[in-house]
């Protein structure tokens, strides 16, 4: 894999990035027993590094590990492993304002298991890669195809955790949308095929008359850390924020729609007759990205600064 650099963290130590050995009968290869996380490190103007709420990723992977029958590093150990990996790779973090270092922790059933059961051994590793904008459009509006037939998650399934199978489930819909020149897919609920869920790798928000709404977390969407942060930012700026069922028809009347995620940060979606970046999307984006990049004071206490000696 070419995009990854430097050192990766694996089973408690830093190693030179490279392929790993895996049994053909490992739990992850046969039964999809795998989870991942995604974080970003930004370089500040003074050269130091900022992480954003890494303990939230640590807690989310714990919940996922429970659902996937795997043990998981405790919160503080997870955060320390992320810090060590970022510091070991700090030369790959782009200069301030020029991108970020994407951090990908993975937890998988690496032990051999033939009959269906949790693997007897697990591997926790972290690799990194410098990144720019996730969608080539940056903050410009993205174009989403509403998908009612292919679902990324069903009630009682694994949609609420970041397990690898959720991403396999969206590949076909995403490829079909891209072939039609859409940027990505907006999924609807699998029962009534009517309520917004999320995009392949981000959460969705709808703005109407300065009220910001997002689908409620009920097990079929990923509880995004950016989603949670944007709700707090918006409330602190005086917006009314609702978590509720949002019918797809509401998009026809909405003032703005935007997506949130670690990779995309905030990406406005195109709406009929409104292809600009709406003022609410712009405001919450600027507040969050400035905080993540260390351009404004972190009054929320969300950033973790790593100082280079
Ligand atoms: N939904 C899905 C399906 C995702 O893959 C992601 C990216 N992790 C998100 C939402 C956004 O989550 P976060 O803000 O924690 O990155």
TrEMBL record:
The modification N6-(pyridoxal phosphate)lysine is found at residue 162. Keywords: Amino-acid biosynthesis, Aminotransferase, Branched-chain amino acid biosynthesis, Pyridoxal phosphate, Transferase. It catalyses: L-isoleucine + 2-oxoglutarate = (S)-3-methyl-2-oxopentanoate + L-glutamate; L-valine + 2-oxoglutarate = 3-methyl-2-oxobutanoate + L-glutamate; L-leucine + 2-oxoglutarate = 4-methyl-2-oxopentanoate + L-glutamate. It comes from the Eukaryota. GO terms for molecular function: L-isoleucine-2-oxoglutarate transaminase activity; L-leucine-2-oxoglutarate transaminase activity; L-valine-2-oxoglutarate transaminase activity. GO terms for biological process: amino acid biosynthetic process; branched-chain amino acid biosynthetic process. The keyword Transferase applies. The keyword Hydrolase does not apply. Its EC number is 2.6.1.42. It holds the Pfam family Aminotran_4. CDD domains: BCAT_beta_family. One of its GO terms (cellular component) is chloroplast. Its cofactor is pyridoxal 5'-phosphate. InterPro entries: Aminotrans_IV, Aminotrans_IV_CS, Aminotransferase-like, B_amino_transII, BCAT-like_C, BCAT-like_N, BCAT_family. Belongs to the class-IV pyridoxal-phosphate-dependent aminotransferase family. PANTHER family: AMINO ACID AMINOTRANSFERASE, BRANCHED-CHAIN-AMINO-ACID AMINOTRANSFERASE 3, CHLOROPLASTIC-RELATED. This is Branched-chain-amino-acid aminotransferase. It comes from Genlisea aurea. The lineage of its organism: Eukaryota, Viridiplantae, Streptophyta, Embryophyta, Tracheophyta.
């Amino acid at each position: 894999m070419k995009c990854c650099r430097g050192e990766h963290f694996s089973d408690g130590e830093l190693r030179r990035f490279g392929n790993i050995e895996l049994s053909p009968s490992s739990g992850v290869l046969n039964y999809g027993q795998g989870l991942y996380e995604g974080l970003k490190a930004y370089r500040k103007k003074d050269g130091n590094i900022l992480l954003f709420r890494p303990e939230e990723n640590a807690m989310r992977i714990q919940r996922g590990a429970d659902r996937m029958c795997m043990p998981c590093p405790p919160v503080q150990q997870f955060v320390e492993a992320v810090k060590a990996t970022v510091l070991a790779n700090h030369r790959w973090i782009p200069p301030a304002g020029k991108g970020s270092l994407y951090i990908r922790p993975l937890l998988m059933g690496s032990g051999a298991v033939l009959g269906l059961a949790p693997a007897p051994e697990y591997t926790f590793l972290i690799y990194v890669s410098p990144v720019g904008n996730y969608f080539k459009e940056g903050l410009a509006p993205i174009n989403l195809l509403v998908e009612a037939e292919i679902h990324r998650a069903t009630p009682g399934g694994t949609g609420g955790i970041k397990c690898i199978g959720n991403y396999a489930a969206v590949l076909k819909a995403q490829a079909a949308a891209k072939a039609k020149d859409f940027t990505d897919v907006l999924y609807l609920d699998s029962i009534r095929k009517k309520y917004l869920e999320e995009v392949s790798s981000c959460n969705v928000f709808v703005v109407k008359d300065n009220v910001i709404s997002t689908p409620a977390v009920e097990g079929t969407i990923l509880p995004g850390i950016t989603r949670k942060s944007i709700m707090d930012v918006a409330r602190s700026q005086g917006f009314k924020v609702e978590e509720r069922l949002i019918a797809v028809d509401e998009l026809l009347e909405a003032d703005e729609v935007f997506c949130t995620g670690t990779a995309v940060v905030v990406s406005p979606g195109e709406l009929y007759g409104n292809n600009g970046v709406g003022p609410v999307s712009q405001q919450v984006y600027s507040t969050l990205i400035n905080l993540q990049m260390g351009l404004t004071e972190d009054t929320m206490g969300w950033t973790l600064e790593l100082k280079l000696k």
